[in-house]
Amino acid sequence: MKVWYGTEKSYDAVLDAQVQLKAMLKANPGLDAFDPPSLLEVEDGVGLVSIAGSLINGSAGWLAMFGVTGYDDIAEALLEGVSDKSVKSIVLKVNSPGGDAKGVRHLGDLIKNVGTVKPVNVHADTIGSAAYWLGSAGGHITLDEMGLAGSIGALIVHTDRSKQLEQDGVKKTIIRAGVNKALANPIEPLTDEARAGLQEIVDTSRDLFVNAVAENRGVTAATVESSFGQGKEFMGHKAVAVGLVDKVGTLEDAIAYSKALQKGFKATKAVKV
């Protein structure tokens, strides 16, 4: 059971991708492991790093074929951009509703570290939840006029399969040592105690999210809470007004901003992986 910085739809998209992948591998048992193509494109001295679709911890592998992106794949693209001498600055090209809570802090920290070696800024079509955490670590954010930003919060999806098992004639029993052991499991209805435990986890996860965004955006956690930290998404100019992003504009605008950042930029330290 995952803590998810994203929408239920983005969570389901990963589950659907896993089902499709399982069917594909079953139909093609001889397939080797798949190394997703690089997420880095270089355009006139600017490295464009794609952050798209539902995001998961680790590498997406074959799931990349179904619109899923892995944090490790993004990190690899960032490090490629750092090591490529033709890349003078980096733009995070974001179109994602969010994803896995696990791994997002580490990648966010890497983005900030990369920004001490080469200038980093962001362009987004959709930049929600986990993707917003990453974008907030990338400095100046340009959002498409019709783009959406925000969705700051956390969720856990619990699926109760007890009635389905009953209809299938299957009865499973959990023998516990410890009254709170395995309370939020899929074969029993969710108890009040289990719900409270999951709520505590998502509340704590959201607090971590809010604090990280506050640090990255240079505001207080209270400002995040009151202005845009309650899970709502904001479009275009409204996202600028509440402080989620810095400017409404196109990818070309973000690339022009990136080129301007190159002038006089001096690296301050090496990247820590």
Descriptive report:
- This protein has 273 residues and is of the alpha/beta class.
- The protein has a single domain, classed as 2-enoyl-CoA Hydratase, Chain A, domain 1 (Alpha-Beta Complex), CATH 3.90.226.10.
- Strand 6, helix 4 and strand 7 form a beta-alpha-beta unit.
- Helix 2 packs parallel to helix 3 and helix 3 packs parallel to helix 4.
What's the structural blueprint in terms of helices and strands?
Layout (H helix, E strand, L loop, with lengths): L3 E2 L2 H20 L12 E4 L2 E11 L11 E3 H13 L5 E12 L3 H11 L5 E9 L1 H7 L4 E10 L11 H6 L24 H26 L3 H7 L5 E3 H7 L4 E2 L2 H12 L11
Parallel strand pairs: 3-4, 3-5, 5-6, 6-7, 7-9
Antiparallel strand pairs: 1-5, 2-3, 7-8
Helix pairs in contact: 2-3, 3-4, 6-7
Total DSSP E strands: 9
Low-confidence stretches: none
What does the average pLDDT come to?
94
Helix share, percent: 25-40%
* Structural domain tally: 1
**CATH class, please?**
Alpha Beta
SSE string, helices as H and strands as E: EHEEEHEHEHEHHHEHEH
Number of helices: 9
What is the second-level CATH architecture?
A: Alpha-Beta Complex
Radius of gyration: 21 Å
